[in-house]
Design goal:
It is built from 14 helices and no strands. It is mainly alpha-helical and 336 residues long.
């Protein structure tokens, strides 16, 4: 099936003597074709490379939320907190004289992961409603803290003066977005490969167990809170990388990187694409960003109406998001 092939998962067939199989790390043709699309876009749409890099970055951000929501079943309304921390870490580093891109990514990842590790002890203690409130509260507090600390963050005016050095000492961040796009694509792909390996590992299977029946996992000796803390920390680190990428590619950090609306949009992207599928996060981010760009060009005031309508249609008629809808369509075609 399309969605399962994209995830590299094998679904047991009827009558099979082994009803459950471990996920496979083998890359399928559809996965290779999927990653060739952004490569082709670099040559086919040279005027949209800046938008393309933004889609890649937001897709990576959505992937970070998919790790905890789609696989571990941990809900969050404040994931932008870690995205913003990564952005400010990389942005402040560059604004104060160190504009080396790769070390900026590492700084964003480390700062966000450290914050995620601390927050995880609060998040894993409660149920879904408590987790929503805790993550929302932390996100709001960080937003206001960044607003008040204008002497550091720039406040509502944003953090400017983010000057990036040449990538690997060779490639300038040109205004047309060639370096930015390829840089974002390589980083997103490498992080995706690591995440794909993670979710297909025994650790990834234990996360699915937590999502499907967290109360039963201790009976088989699985340390529930340890697993939740670990995946929440990893997710925060990935969000930090996405935030650092945004700061480096735009050379500016606005206060909105910590806003609630960014976290809410992230949930919309996962619903659109399909949570718990990895590729669903990337597809959902691409659909949302392209729809937003097109619809806001048609009507800058009422574009959210059409986004809301699209969301309602997906929820009602495509269970599991776009990827789930493609899977259902494939099943119907096979049965005919």
């Amino acid at each position: 099936m399309i969605a399962e092939r994209l995830n590299g998962l094998l679904k047991p067939q009827a009558g099979n003597a082994t009803p459950h199989r471990l996920p496979s790390d083998r890359w399928h043709a559809l996965e290779i074709a999927f990653w060739l699309l952004p490569v082709a876009a670099f040559f086919l749409f040279p005027g949209y490379l800046v938008l393309g890099s933004q889609i890649l970055i937001v897709g990576l951000f959505a992937l970070s939320l998919d790790l905890i929501l789609g696989y571990a079943g941990i809900v969050s309304l404040g994931h932008a907190a870690f995205f913003g921390l990564g952005a400010y870490a990389a942005g402040l580093l560059a604004a104060h004289g160190w504009g080396e891109p790769l070390s900026g990514l590492v700084a964003g990842c480390v700062v966000a992961a450290a914050a995620g590790y601390v927050v995880s002890f609060l998040v894993v203690r409660g149920g879904d409603l408590a987790r929503l409130m805790v993550t929302l509260g932390i996100g709001l507090m960080l937003y206001e803290a960044a607003n008040k600390a204008a002497f550091i963050t720039g406040g509502v005016d944003g953090l400017s003066g983010v000057t990036m050095w040449k990538l690997l000492g060779l490639f300038d961040f040109d205004i047309m977005g060639h370096t930015v796009y390829l840089y974002s694509l390589v980083v997103v792909f490498l992080v995706f490969v690591l995440m794909r390996r993670l979710v297909n590992s025994p650790f990834g299977l234990s996360l699915r167990g937590l999502r499907e029946g967290g109360k039963r996992m201790p009976a088989i000796g699985s340390p529930v809170r340890q697993r939740q803390t670990m995946i929440f920390t990893i997710s925060a680190g990935v969000a930090g990388i996405a935030g650092a990428l945004l700061a480096q590619t735009t050379q500016f950090v606005g206060l909105d990187v910590l806003s609630f609306s960014r976290s809410a949009e992230l949930l919309i992207m996962l619903v659109l694409g399909g949570a718990g599928r990895l590729y669903g996060a990337l597809v959902g981010a691409a659909v949302f960003m392209l729809a937003q760009d097109y619809l806001s060009g048609l009507n800058p005031v009422y574009w959210q109406f059409w986004i809301g309508l699209l969301l309602v249609v997906i929820v009602l008629f495509a269970r599991g998001g776009i990827m789930g809808g493609l899977e259902a369509l494939y099943q119907r075609l096979v049965k005919q």
